[in-house]
Specification:
The complex is a heterodimer. By secondary structure, chain A is mainly beta. Helices cover 0% and strands 51% of the residues of chain A. Chain B has strands at residues 9-12, 18-23, 33-37, 44-47, 61-66, 69-74, 83-91, 96-99, 103-107. The chains are: A mainly beta, B mainly beta. The A-B interface holds A 35, 37, 39, 44-47, 50, 59, 61-62, 95, 97, 99-100, 102-106, 108-111 and B 1, 31, 33, 35, 37, 42-45, 48-49, 54, 84, 86, 88, 90, 92, 94-102.
């Protein structure tokens, strides 16, 4: 069965960086894009960007451009999201999700809580 | 960039029908997808491509899309349906995914 398993919770200080992993199993990793979505406390879902594992091609939401980097390692079927220059308003649950063409996100990771506090 | 708008809240009594809307300019020309989000859980896809259901999603969940409004309909609402629901589309102008702000369904 398709599974996306994310790395554990992180606590960071303002200005630091964080890198979250998303290990895929149960399907061909290079056959689907991986998207990253976050939910801040009391807020809605916010799409951050996506990576195509086969080509490494990435696209980012404008507000994250330059501060978020998406990468992948096809040898271990894992996608990564790094956020630099963390601020308190980056405190959120971060999810990876499998993309289906230009459409929906059909499988989601369990989420990784990133807390940014001094 | 494309914007989709949802009502912040929808309330319905158990056994009744809930309708959650997602508005956008000519959204009827796009494919709309819906997610259920409960506290402490990852989002779950409940309807995709306007009206298709993933396996395991009850037939009580259905969707439609026309003109400037897409609608998620939940029939015979149960207490367990209480959650936040988000619509999502693909913005073909910039290859971005766009989420609505979410609608909290309260079962009275």
């Amino acid at each position: 069965q398709v599974q996306l398993v994310q790395s554990g919770a992180e606590a960071k200080k303002p200005g630091a960086s964080v890198k979250v992993s998303c290990e895929a199993s149960g399907y061909t990793f290079t056959g689907h894009s991986i998207h990253w979505v976050r939910q801040a406390p009391g807020q809605g879902l916010e799409w951050m960007g996506r990576i195509s594992p086969k080509s490494g091609d990435t696209i980012y939401a404008q507000r994250f451009q330059g501060r978020v980097t998406l990468t992948r390692d096809t040898s271990i079927s894992t996608a990564f999201m790094e956020v630099t220059g963390l601020r308190s308003d980056d405190t959120a649950l971060y999810y990876c999700a499998r993309g289906w063409g230009t459409g929906h996100l059909d499988y989601w990771g369990q989420g990784t809580l990133v807390t940014v506090s001094s | 960039s494309y914007v989709v708008t949802q009502p912040p809240s929808v309330s319905v009594a158990p056994g009744q029908t809930a309708r959650i809307t997602c508005g956008g300019n000519n959204i009827g020309t796009k494919s709309v997808h819906w997610y259920q989000k409960k506290p402490g859980q990852a989002p779950v896809l409940v309807v995709y491509d306007d009206s298709d259901r993933p396996s395991g999603i009850p037939a009580r969940f259905s969707g439609s899309n026309s003109g400037n409004t897409a609608t998620l309909t939940i029939s015979r609402v149960e207490a367990g349906d209480e959650a936040d629901y988000f619509c999502q589309v693909w913005d073909n102008t910039n290859d971005h995914r766009v989420f609505g702000g979410g609608s909290r369904l309260t079962v009275l």
